Amino acid sequence: MSEVVRLERHDVVAIVTVNSPPVNALSAAVRGGILECMKEAIADSGVKAIVLTCAGRTFIAGADITEFGKPPKPPGLSEVLLEIENSPKPIVAAIHGTALGGGLEVALACHFRVATRDAKLGLPEVKLGLLPGAGGTQRLPRAVGPELAVRMIVGGDPISATDALKNGLIEEIVEDPAAGGEAFARKVLADNRPLRKLRDDDSKLAAAKADRSIFTNAVAAMTRRARGLEAPFAAADAVGAAIDLPFDEGLKKEREGFLKLVASDQSKAQRYAFFSEREAAKISGVPDGTRPRKVERVAIIGAGTMGGGIAMSFANAGIPVILIETGEEQLKRGMGVMQKNYDASAARGGIPADAPAKRMGLINGVVGLEHVRDADLVIEAVFETMAVKKEVFTALDKFAKPGAVLASNTSYLNIDQIAEVTNRPQDVLGMHFFSPANVMKLCEIVRAARTAPDVLTTAVAVARKIAKVPAVVGVCDGFVGNRMLAQRAKQAEKLLFEGALPQQVDAVVTRFGMPMGPFAMGDLAGLDIGWRSRKDRGIKSEIADALCEAGRFGQKTGKGYYRYEGGSRSPLPDPEVEKLIDETLQRLGRKRRAVSDEEILERMMYPMINEGARILEEKIAARPSDIDVIWLYGYGWPIYRGGPMYYADGVGLKPIAERLSYYARQTDDPSLEPAPLLRHLAAEGKTFASLAQSAKAA
Known about the structure:
Helices cover 50% and strands 11% of the residues. With 698 residues, the chain is of the alpha/beta class. It is globular, with a radius of gyration of 28 Å.
């Protein structure tokens, strides 16, 4: 008998238990074990019904994706499912935790399903650039109807046990999976219930067969935001095959779609992103066994845009927070903005109707820094100037209890300098949230020179608890994301001086897959912020300054690099901006030239990649994949392109280094010369990925 799957007899009921921690993934050993146990139970004349359940914290949570790209090991999942589905004896899947991907496909091949109340069931393969490849696209529409099947398969989000019961995906909600599954199996035997094979039951497809718009409308709703992605459309086609074709032909169509996607560049990039996110939570240079500090009470200083968003992130995770302001007026304004955001979310159906009251109830707004006294973690989110930050941390040193973790939500400033004003630099680090903090997933965890290992592990653990993706970085101006972004901004500005227009640059960047281009982004943030900063530092930027002098501050004034009509956020090209650029260039004695889209793309992406190489050289980031995670979750880099360093490996480091040298000469900008690391890897024909492989080998 398999080590990871065991078979027990409880008189006429056989219990098949998968025990392959931590998530009972469908490895070759698990597949083989299930097949072996099923065959034995089916062959045993004393067994009249079979229950499939799992030990540990979850049902089968999916395929073993470490097997992707490797030669397949028998038995295949389809062979296992065929054995289950064709069993002459009833088989009940008893689900707890999560039944995801291949795990739900196993459950769908069973004749009956029961689940615990807190279980989640889903087919999230689309998030890895795939579609379910073992009958999920054919059996799920037959279980719940095509509309919900499209939502689950094309959208990739799981449903609760309550929804599963309501829609016929499970037969019953049980307290304990094994005992509940066994009790249900005995009921099936007592009632002599016929076996329900989903492959033979087309009843829930009838409406969509008669009126295909039921299906097409559901697909349109789910693919609205799937710009540039292949998998959602391939998944929709496979579900469509369940409506249009007999079961076995539909299975064939599903398999073709799966094999095409699994070999695609997009899916490879999405799987890379999945593993990179997991890898980012591993902190280099921290002793094994370092435990995080206990965090039961959290205080946030500043109820502005960032502080409010961070407070909402904690409340969304059910964690109470104290939100501290300097005055009643600011506090009232901040609490009002959060209430408005929650109400708008509830009105859109994004959160339950009772969620705004519950979540606001977890945010305790107070005035005065002395209220940090009981907090285990304090996150400062005040104005982004060193003087203000130092003032706050000097006060925190006085009021915060010993051992409290003190974090600064800064996007640029030196954490070492902030830590110096305290008598506890070991407790200080950066937690750089991205705006809007209640929506954006990334949190750059900034390790200062004297940050204690357990403080670092605490920040990473807390970030994960509030559903953020943490990435540990070192101290430098702008850390990883903003430091790279500054290189793109510099080139975007230069391109205007050479003849490109804002709309051309932005179009190239959005076609690449970014949510918005640099100029639309500038308009959204407000051009006056950069203008003020330049004036403080005595720097000029002729075109941007001219826009601000003309009162064009971006969206808030209805015009910036673009114009915005009637309160709309849609940028419209403005002939006045082109005229202003022309006049500025004439005044400076410069001539416009035709700039190709190819040049724009290279000058937007390659200098950022070059900066990424410098960041790795300086050990500001531990791994190229950490840089990619930061760009994927903090800046909207398209997931199907894997991140800037992954993208660079795909293009080839040699051509990138050559083009950077070319642009350094053409634009007389030595900062574009390839970084030593990039030059070295390019000369040896290596990739950024090879750095991670070498580190692992060492």
